[in-house]
Write a structure and sequence with these properties.
By secondary structure, the protein is of the alpha/beta class. The chain has 17 helices and 15 strands. Strand 4 and strand 5 form a beta hairpin. The structure holds manganese (II) ion.
């Protein structure tokens, strides 16, 4: 049964063809049609352009990071998941499976040195075969690699030790070199740099060292590249982090130049931060370059997108949609899921995250911006809130399914994934006790 539904190509790689997906969609298309007709009528009557919204959903692509395909861990332990990808090729295959099921994950974000391609040409061909492009490259100066000539124990770009700083700058330049070969166009820098005890660091020296180092990296980028500077308030350092918040990142991006931007990671804020306002502020200044999706209850929990605070996610998307329409000075943001999964099947978790992202995007597209502006102008607080919540409370899932039907993706990606026994097949191909590289 399995063999007839999935195709094995020469190196035993599982791919899901459009014909197989079509076959599964047939069972659900009737239910879909009635749900979609109902919603389409309702939205059209309210003045929405449904076809345009469906096209926008179909076009929305989120990069999958290479480290999200294996089971993540906590500092207390890690529980492996069978069939994890143990090479860059297999990681691309996994992203390819997600993309085949959703047509929303057409990009992959690599982490260096975990994913240095040994054969660039073969890797590029593999990506093309899955319809994938290489999004932002990620450098790693938060851990020492075997044989490292300098240590990042006391910082990298901010380090008091000049040799550590130079070593970290050189690593970022190496990441750019690899990224250029893969036709990536951006570099994301996230630093663990900070201090765990008062007095450990001179704040101004650390900041000044970071600025100088980032400027050197920026100067080493090709003209058509962007630099994304990611901030985070704490962890792994618990007293101070040198790039602790959006303001610090924004300041450093401005110091570097016009192709440097702030990157917002949803989990990198103190509890109850108004992230939607941060998004609005950055887009107003044309400086929101990258976006990392996840969800959290307390800190950088890296939970499935939309699993804890779906309304906050909607409000954030409302600002993103507003900014994409009203801030032409802001580049189109680079979207990525930045989550780490400890107990779920990583691929199912990514499918859930993609669904949550697209739901938030679709509901934000339903916000009647004209009516909202009027309500704000009239100081009609009740109406303004209602306009947002009317959009939020609309079940937009038929719009997502319409987009997937349009692109040949699965009406129900997780059910199709399970029906096709993808995980079982990955385990039989790769084994039960493999560990994704980098984890
Ligand atoms: Mn991140």
């Amino acid at each position: 049964m399995l063999k007839t539904l999935t195709r094995l190509i020469k190196n035993q790689t599982m791919i899901i063809g459009k014909d197989i997906i079509e076959q599964y969609n047939k069972n659900e298309v009737e239910n879909f049609n009635s749900d979609f007709d109902f919603l389409q009528n309702k939205l059209t009557k309210a003045g929405a352009n449904v076809a345009e919204i469906v096209n926008k959903i179909a076009d929305f692509q989120v990069a999958i990071p290479s480290w999200a395909l294996g089971a993540g861990g906590t500092r207390f332990g890690r529980f492996s998941y069978g069939g994890e990808p143990s090479s860059l090729e297999q990681k691309l295959d996994d992203v390819g499976l997600i993309h085949a099921l959703t047509h929303s994950a057409g990009a992959v974000s690599l982490h260096i040195p975990w994913d240095i391609p040994s054969d660039v040409k073969a890797i590029k061909e593999k990506a093309v075969s899955h319809g994938l492009v290489f999004d932002a490259m990620n450098s790693n100066t938060f851990q020492d690699q075997p044989g490292a000539k300098q240590s990042y124990k006391f910082g990298s770009l901010n380090a008091a030790n000049e040799d550590s700083r130079a070593y970290a700058v050189e690593h970022n330049k190496e990441v750019i070199r690899i990224g250029k070969e893969l036709d990536s166009k951006s570099l994301t820098v996230w630093l663990a740099d900070g201090s765990s005890f008062p007095g450990q660091l001179n704040f101004q020296t650390a900041l000044s060292n970071t600025e100088k180092s980032l400027k050197e990296i920026y100067a080493g980028m090709p003209e058509d590249w962007k630099l994304f500077i990611e901030y985070k308030p704490y962890e792994p350092n618990f007293y101070s982090t040198t790039i602790q918040d959006w303001g610090t990142s924004f300041m450093l991006a401005n110091a570097c130049g016009e192709r440097a931007f702030t990157l917002v990671d949803l989990g990198h804020h103190l509890p109850n931060s108004n992230i939607e306002q941060i998004v609005a502020t950055l887009m107003y200044k044309g400086k929101l370059g990258g976006f990392h999706f996840n969800d959290s209850k307390y800190g950088d929990d890296d939970l499935t997108v939309g699993s804890i605070k779906p309304y906050a996610l909607f409000l954030i998307f409302n600002e993103l949609v507003y900014g994409m329409e009203n801030n032409p000075n802001n580049p189109y943001p680079a979207w990525m899921i930045d989550a780490s999964h400890n107990i779920k099947d990583p691929l199912e978790d990514l499918l859930q995250s993609l669904e949550a992202i697209l739901i938030a995007y679709a509901t934000a597209l339903l916000v009647d911006q004209k009516a909202l502006k009027e309500a704000q102008q009239n100081n009609d607080v009740v109406l303004a809130q209602d306009i947002l919540q009317n959009a939020y409370r609309t079940d937009v899932r038929p719009l997502l399914r319409a987009a997937r039907l349009q692109t040949g993706a699965a009406l129900d990606p997780i059910a199709t994934y399970r029906n096709l026994k993808v995980r079982e097949q990955l385990i039989s191909e790769r084994g039960l006790n493999v560990k994704a590289t980098g984890l």
